[in-house]
Amino acid sequence: MTTTLIGNTPIRRCDFLSTLYCTNIFIKEEFHNLGMSAKDRPAFFMIQDAIERQRIQPGGTFVEASSGNTGLGITLIAKQLGYQAKIFVSKSCSQEKINTLLQAGAEIEICENSNGLHDFHSTQFHAQSYAATHPNAYFTNQYYNTQNIRAHYKTTGPEIWEQTAGKVTHFLSGVGTGGTISGVGRFLKEQRPDVCIWGVEPKGSILQHYLSHRRTPEKVVPFDAIEGIGRNFVPGSFDPQQVDHIFQVEQESTKAMARLYREKTGILSGFSSAALLASLACHREEMGFTPEHTVLLFFPDHGSRYVSKLYSDSADFQTATKTVIR
Ligand SMILES: Cc1ncc(COP(=O)(O)O)c(C=O)c1O
């Protein structure tokens, strides 16, 4: 059964980063999950919850708005359980993710953006409309589904605590829906209130401002996409109580760090994973790591999903074949 292939992912020490930053840096490798990303965890919890509460009948369609990874988790699990999957992705989604979704059996629609339910051209708006107008269709809605946080509270947090033998002092994660940082943050803070829970988002995203001021900025500006992270609205799955700080990074330094990391370790990091690497490089002084610290970097997926965007010199990432629905 698919569920045995979700969770219990390895944590490995990264000697290159540990030496570079004079501390102990470990990486939780979520690309070992069934669909090769952390998002299998909330996908499974949301599907299980919908079935248990009879919000969908056998053979029905699970609908999701996703940068690709949640969509893939939903598709793989839904298909195995005898359901269909309809996934709304934004046009910034990598071609690799789109191809994988199609191969997994998802029906996909490409939308203009993923700016939330208030935007009529967003993935979320289209997903909600679709589920509301089609029989036996259920919108899992990772941005507002409590099972998203719960999946990480129940699985990812305890795994990190056990695998580091309770030594973790800092947890760094990209923030998209906020489910990972909120669920893991809550669990780790219950074990150890002095743990630092730090998020990373692209420059121009609004969650750093929201965390400091508890309101969105007056002016919301477009920002360079780093797939999976960064928002111009505050998702319900983001719990500011569990987060101590959010660092912002530039897309360019993220790409540069992905390439440096590949050169030094031979590993292709995912796009948002490389954003964590950029945050270490750009905010080193502020982070103030010491040899006594145990720092956990959460890598939600793998660089193979972003070869054309991150590692190919001739990257033309807005592939001409994409048709955007309006
Ligand atoms: C590649 C990647 N990184 C980071 C995230 C953000 O995780 P979360 O939605 O739990 O904040 C996502 C979410 O889809 C993702 O796909």
From TrEMBL:
- What positions does the domain Tryptophan synthase beta chain-like PALP occupy? 3-301
Pfam families registered for this protein in UniProt:
PALP (PF00291)
User: What does the record give as cofactor?
Assistant: pyridoxal 5'-phosphate
Keyword list (alphabetical) reads: Pyridoxal phosphate
Keyword flag Transmembrane: no
- InterPro entries the record matches: Cys_Synth/Cystath_Beta-Synth, TrpB-like_PALP, TrpB-like_PALP_sf
Q: What is this protein called?
A: PLP-dependent cysteine synthase family protein
* Protein's organism: Sphingobacterium bambusae
